[in-house]
Amino acid sequence: MRPFFGMLLSFKFKITSLVIALVLVAGIGAGGIALLIAESELRQVIARQELSLLTSAAAFIDSDIQDKRQLLKSLTEQMRGREVTLGEIQELVEAHQTLREEFFNVSAFDASGTLVASLRDRNAKRINISDRKYFQDTLRLKEGVISAPFRSILSGRPVVVLTQPLHDGEGKIIGVLLGAIDLQRPSFSAQLDALRSNSAGYLFIVTDNGTTIHHPNRSLILEKGDDGPGTIVEAALRSPEGWEDGILDDGEPVLLVHKHLREVDWTVALSYPVLSAFAPMHSVRLRAFVGSAILTGLAGLFGWVITKKLLLPLGRLHRHVEDISAGRADITVFDVDRADEFGHLSRAFYALSQRRERAEQELHRLATTDVLTGLHNRRMFDDFLPKALARAARAGQQVGLAILDIDHFKDINDTLGHAAGDQVLVEFARRLVGAVRTTDTVARLAGDEFVIVFEQLATNTEIDVLGRKIIDAMHQPFLGGGAQRAVTASIGIALTTSPTVTVDEIMRAADQALYGVKAAGRNGFAVNHVGAERVLRARG
Ligand SMILES: Nc1nc2c(ncn2[C@@H]2O[C@H](COP(=O)(O)OP(=O)(O)OP(=O)(O)O)[C@@H](O)[C@H]2O)c(=O)[nH]1
């Protein structure tokens, strides 16, 4: 659990998260904006395409109605020219083949509105349409009109009729010629439906008052659709032409494209389901989402790998600091030649470690050095002697320990003063170091007591030479408190080749030798072999 939380807090994790966040923001931001723009563009393109298609449909319907009106008009003009009577109209329309193709029925009514001829059924009931608005309008305007859609009394079919006034030879209106268009007849509706074949959505036509003229659901024809705010009928009639987005048709959002006809107060409209219209967009969105997810994952992985790689020097630096702290390496492991931030950090660590090392060395020196004489002190000696004994035991060599005591040093202090005593101690130490070999270790234990550890002694007699050399080194008078004074020392030396000798044993043996020298009148040295428990020589 802990390593997991540790990983969450790691710099690598933070950088990786940052990279992922940036990629996500960039992806969602740029991708989302691009998708929105693309979607908006697509809507415009689709809407324009559909409007252009609708314009063709509107032109087709306009021209169809115009053709039909023209046909009726030319027929009535023919009749007028030939002074056809109402009684002759039935024969005439039956003889006119084109009328059957263009109209569901063509009928004629006299000026009182009574049926006088019917193409579909010459024996049709003599109905009267004098109360119909289109009939009245035709007589009043003296020109053809297009009726509102209605259910025909003659056929029971939903129709609109085109009218033309009938004139006698003198131009007087004697009746009205009607061409009926069956709104459910394939010749009208199938042509419109054909315009939408292979495409999504459907075409419908409504009059200006919202009555349905054409609709794929034939049962709606002649019905007045809901034209409340936000309905497709209201949207279709809102302006002469254009498109509306997001209108609900039967609960489904649609793109509604509409165009008003020129010839008649009808609006032809297209309801285009948005979901299928933008189906390509959905797949683009899905692919963009998957792409973004993959990209984000890759970016995260990439961020992790790159950060890990970039932070390798930091890891190395961390290990180096740990190794140096644990004493497994020295400060030369720092890569101080790097030019980057890790180089700066390494150099800072190097300088810090160097200062710390120097401080440690100084501390160690102070802790192991006798302040007055500059020799090793007792602490150093206590640490050093066991190691020297072990070294000698390993090498099978003889080791010697000398304990030195300045004779009657108290007198020097008492007669010349403590400072003069110090001077003597310093000079004594200096001469001592000068008298022994570089391989020998000299220390001041306390007061006027000094020790020397002799390592790598070649012969037994070598120690005699060294003892004599020390005695001789002290022959010259010492300067203390401005006065010259003879200083002598007593030296007890212990020698051993035993690999099992202890610190106590060799110290005791040296003490014993010193005691012998002192007993013999001081100013000399004696050598005692450890285990022999006797002073072999005592010389002044
Ligand atoms: N000047 C000076 N005196 C010290 C220092 N440390 C100890 N002493 C003195 O050294 C003297 C040591 O004298 P002792 O060890 O008693 O004996 P001694 O006079 O040398 O006599 P023997 O050893 O028997 O010859 C004492 O008076 C201490 O006060 C020091 O650092 N400086």
UniProtKB/TrEMBL annotation:
Q: What keywords is this UniProt entry annotated with?
A: Cell membrane, Membrane, Transmembrane, Transmembrane helix
**Every HAMP domain range:** 308-361
Concerning InterPro entries, the annotation shows: dCache_1, DGC-Regulatory_Protein, GGDEF_dom, HAMP_dom, Nucleotide_cyclase, Rev_trsase/Diguanyl_cyclase, Sensor-like_sf
Q: What is its main location?
A: membrane
Which residue spans traverse the membrane? 286-306
Q: Please name the SMART domains in this protein's record.
A: GGDEF
Which NCBIfam families does this UniProt record tie to the protein? Answer: GGDEF
Protein name, as recorded: Diguanylate cyclase
The scientific name of the source species is Rugamonas aquatica
Q: What is the lineage of its organism?
A: Bacteria, Pseudomonadati, Pseudomonadota, Betaproteobacteria, Burkholderiales
